[in-house]
Amino acid sequence: MCSTGRVRWERQRAGEGEPILPGLDGLVRSVRSPEFDGVTFHEVHAKSVLNRVPDGSQVPFRWTVNPYRGCSHACTYCLEGGTPVLLADGRAKPIADLQVGEQILGTRGHGVARRLVPTEVLAHWTTVREAYRVTLDDGTTLVTGPDHRFLSARGWKYVTGSKLGAAQRPHLVEGTELVGGGKFVRTPDDTLGYRAGYLCGMLRSGGFATEKDAAARAVRYLPDFGSSVGFMSLPQKPDAHWARGLLAGLFDLAGAYRRGVLSIAHDETDVVDAMFAALDRFSFDYETVGHREYAGRRQARLTGGAGEVLRFLHLTDPAVAWKRSLDGTTIGSVRRVVTSVESLGLELPLFDITTGTGDFVADGMVSHNCFARNTHTYLDFDAGHDFDTQVVVKVNAPEVLAAQLKRPSWQREHVAMGTNTDPYQRAEGRYQLMPGIIRALADSGTPLSILSKGTVLTRDLPLLESVAKDVPVSLAVSIALLDRELQRRLEPGTPSPQARLDLVRKARAAGLPCSVLVAPVLPYLTDSVDALDALFTELADAGADSVSVIPLHLRPGAREWFASWLGRNHPALVPRYKRLYARGSYVDRAYRQQLGERVGPLLRRHGLAPKTGYNPRTAAEPEVPEPRVEAPPPAEQLRLL
Questions:
Q1: pTM (two decimals)
Q2: E strands along 432-583, which residues?
Q3: Is the pLDDT of residue 201 over 90?
Q4: How many CB atoms are closer than 10 A to CB 593?
Q5: Three-class SS of residue 284?
Q6: Higher model confidence: residue 295 or residue 358?
Q7: Are 51 and 397 spatial neighbours (Cβ–Cβ below 8 Å)?
Q8: Which residues are CB-contacts of 145 (< 8 A; sequence separation ≥ 6)?
Q9: DSSP code of 302?
Q10: Helix axis angle, 529-542 relative to 589-605, nearest 10°?
Q11: Residue 239 half-sphere exposure, CB side, CA atoms within 13 Å?
Q12: Under 8 Å CB-to-CB from 26, ≥6 apart: which residues?
């Protein structure tokens, strides 16, 4: 705030202190304010604001409206840096070593009916997150963050989640079938034995003239053998390196990969025998057939689908690029089963990328990337820090949305707001985009829902009450505690608990459904029976439909800030918090269970428990299990609920 007590907005046009950013088409101006420390708002004229949710997201809506792009509480989906990612040439590379602009393989298709297609790395970044190990039935282990998603036989699933409460989301459990060929094998070492095997397979299959890539490799290998041509002979007891090289050389000159089938054919009996022996050595599944035109020729065809093809390419590393192309390969029919998902109990540097297809193949498994962060790369921002500090405001959002909703193709499906960024963040008090957006949706007969932490939403309650007569409308609000003094010390500048309770009360008075997220619950500060009972009493009195309880989550950055605050204000609690959060960002599992046992009866007593077809305000309390309090989802996922 400036000395006058009002927010001072600094207008910066092109030529007035800040250049136009080339990625921001339609930029009107860039605005800074002392109220938003470190954040710049870029006002643009957007061409579209109605966004379709990607297929497979498994959220209860297909459409969103986001008048703002960029969010200081965005979710990150990450993998351990050594995780191999499938490249466009069929090889693999650690995710930490990928570069923006590099060609890799993603997928196209509907549901799990997927085919591999080339795509580009559009963004690449790292963060520090709590690490989980996902183990599959073939021995594949994937070290990842809790919010990463993999494609299962039933759609995209997060690594962790819950079946109940605010953490509810599709997630991996033991027995989940994941789509993909499974663990990538290590590429062969470039040993003298591998080189001898490669030259033998290649030169005994046709020589130099046929394939330029194979010829170039042979030219590099030949000087190792001087004037000797002993590599042309088949050894009596070849080692594994030589066997890998033989298969690579045979494939480059006498093999093919077409319509999902990898095959190698040869007409020399001793070479065919050596080929079969090499395939057997590495336990490949294959069938043998003759050739229709050449009676002496024998052919081996791999069976087992895309997984076996990938294993062959990685284990042998052939040179001919066009034969390695996996473009169009079906991958959706190959599955691997999850055998365990376990926390490693520590935080690790984890990496993520954004691709043109929205996914990639990580150690054989189809993996989702962070689509939200990539929207900033389209604007010539980076997908990491800029996503958090450079917020784009679509100042013409109401007009553009109204035009989109008038199209004959619009089917008036439910539109959820707050799914990516909070539409009622404080800047909405200045820009006032939501009233026009709400009117546009209502005028078109489109149902809508809003999830927000800000009481700026109060401004639009009369409008929402009015439009609710014509279309379904629902709301959700976050309230963590009642203690005003504690709230001032913890969340300075945020709306008071009473203001948020008033928002719930006013929403219910307007006849609007309104749920509440009690988040975060602070161990030993706001988690007592008395404190929770008092809060639930107020929530019930305000008319909240239901309540979800989420304990404190301490990510890097927030962890250091909170530790400093706790040391100043409650030093006696520091050792207890160290024990509770010794394993990472999530509070100890035993604490969550204890909190769930404490919360369950209170929620049912006040009629705030998840709806089960029974109304506790009008009937005796049934025998139901205590709800578990799960580790909290990130802010972006809370907005999806």
A1: 0.51
A2: 448-452, 473-478, 514-521, 547-551
A3: yes
A4: 13
A5: coil
A6: 358
A7: no
A8: 76, 77, 78, 79, 129, 130, 131, 132, 159, 350
A9: E
A10: 40
A11: 9
A12: 44, 45, 46, 47
Please choose, from the candidates 356, 386, 348, 373, the residue with its C-alpha nearest in 3D space to the C-alpha of residue 636. 373
- Give pLDDT tens digits for 96-152: 888 888 999 999 887 777 899 999 988 777 766 678 999 999 889 999 988 888 999
Residue 176 has pLDDT above 90, yes or no: yes
Kindly report whether the peptide bond that precedes residue 520 is cis, defined as omega within 30 degrees of 0.
yes
* Overall size of the chain counted in residues: 641
Region of 562 on the Ramachandran plot (φ > 0 left; ψ -120 to 50 alpha; else beta): alpha
pLDDT digits (tens, 9 = 90+) for 159-168: 988 776 545 6
Phi, psi angle pair for 544, to nearest 5°: -55, 140
| Cα 526 to Cα 519, 520, 567, 633, distances in angstroms | 10, 9, 17, 19
Strand order in the sheet with 298-302: 255-258, 261-266, 298-302, 286-290
Residue that is written with structure tokens 């301490």 in the block: 554
User: CA 33 to CA 362: how far, in whole Å?
Assistant: 42
User: Alpha helices, DSSP H only, in 510-588?
Assistant: 529-542, 558-569, 574-580
| Mean per-residue pLDDT, 562-583 | 86
3-state secondary structure of 271: helix
Partnered with residue 31 across adjacent β-strands are: 11, 41
Confirm if 211 and 226 have CB atoms less than 8 A apart. no
Tell me the percentage of the chain whose pLDDT exceeds 70.
79
CA distances 323 to 14, 90, 260, 502, 618, Å, are: 51, 10, 12, 66, 70
For residue 567 the two structure tokens come to 């040391």
Read off the DSSP letter of residue 235: P
Question: Who's near 39: CB < 8 A, 6+ residues apart?
Answer: 32, 33, 72, 389, 390, 391
Centre a 10 Å sphere on the Cβ of residue 179 and count the other Cβ atoms it contains: 26
| Antiparallel, parallel or unpaired: β 50-52 and 415-417 | unpaired
Which of 161, 27, 125 is CA-nearest to residue 388? 125
Sheet holding 40-44, edge to edge: 10-12, 27-32, 40-44, 390-394, 68-69
